[in-house]
Amino acid sequence: MLPGDCHVIQLAQHEHDLLLALEMLADALRVGLNTPYPINISRQDEIADPSSDALTADAISIMVARRLPEQSIIIDEAITSVGQIHALADVLPPHDTLSLTGGSIGIGIPLATGASIAAPDRKVVALQADGSGMYTVQGLWTQAREKLNVVTIIYANSAYRILQGEMTNVGVNEYGRNARRMLALDEPRLDWCSIAKGMGVEAGRADTAQAFRRLLDSAMAGDGPFLIEATIE
Ligand SMILES: Cc1ncc(C[n+]2csc(CCOP(=O)(O)OP(=O)(O)O)c2C)c(N)n1
């Protein structure tokens, strides 16, 4: 395509049923607009914890969704690890979601901090990718100082996973040591529990669904800041 060339496909005009147009587009692309996961549930209390002990982004979504209290605030800077939490929104009690607003990463921890200061009676659950979390990690100290009711879940995949995907998207499947190092966060591996504790935030690490569930239950029952380092692939 030449610069200035622009091909616009008009799906609908303002006098049309715009929601229907979006639903038809979603059908054509085979993506559901409202596809709860796991399917065939209509209430939060029908969400079952995963039967496998593997700790995955989807397993975390399900466990968080099952325990999400009414009026809680989800912060979404999970990047590639967001799992199915938003697909479950229809069956969850009324809550708000605040997400990364543009392309610039690093909003998650300060967004959670600000949301909790603005709404101290509401539980804030921050779904936080590890690379993005490092941009503004100092916000954890504010959470400790202000004793904020924030549960932060760090998806510790030890990588800028989305950028590894971008390499694949441009057809680069094998790359050298330096390129690999630019997209990896594993030498040294980040010790999120020590980082959190060093800033006064209680923390625990999980690498199985069972361990995660135990930490999540105790974090959701508490009212101070707590960080869970979830080791995932
Ligand atoms: C301020 C800023 N710096 C750098 C980038 C480029 N960038 C986009 S995504 C990304 C990595 C995200 O990694 P992580 O938060 O660990 O999430 P993952 O991809 O592993 O799910 C980077 C560095 C950006 N978008 N914004």
Write up this protein.
With 233 residues, the chain is α/β, with parallel strands linked by helices. It has one domain: Thiamin diphosphate (ThDP)-binding fold, Pyr/PP domains (Rossmann fold). It has nine helices and six strands, in the order H-H-E-E-H-E-H-H-E-H-H-H-E-H-E. It has helices spanning 18-28, 57-67, 108-118, 130-133, 139-145, 161-169, 177-182, 192-198, 209-221; strands spanning 73-77, 96-99, 124-129, 150-156, 202-206, 226-231. Strands 2-1-3-4-6-5 form a six-stranded parallel sheet, with helices on both faces. Helix 2 (57-67) runs parallel beside helix 9 (209-221). The longest helix is centred in the last third of the chain and has 13 residues, at 209-221. The protein starts with 17 loop residues before the first helix and ends with a strand. Bound molecules: thiamine diphosphate (TPP). Thiamine diphosphate binds next to helix 4 and helix 6.
Look up the CATH topology. Rossmann fold
What is the CATH C level class, in words? Alpha Beta
Strands of the biggest beta sheet: in what spatial order? 2-1-3-4-6-5
* Percentage of residues in strands: 5-15%
Mean pLDDT: 92
First-to-last CA distance: 38 Å
List cofactors, ions and other ligands.
Answer: thiamine diphosphate
| Unreliable segments of 5+ consecutive residues | none
Please provide the count of β strands: 6
Backbone structural class: alpha/beta
> What is the CATH homologous superfamily assignment?
Thiamin diphosphate (ThDP)-binding fold, Pyr/PP domains
What is the multimeric organization of the chains shown?
A: single chain
Order of helices and strands: HHEEHEHHEHHHEHE
CATH architecture: 3-Layer(aba) Sandwich
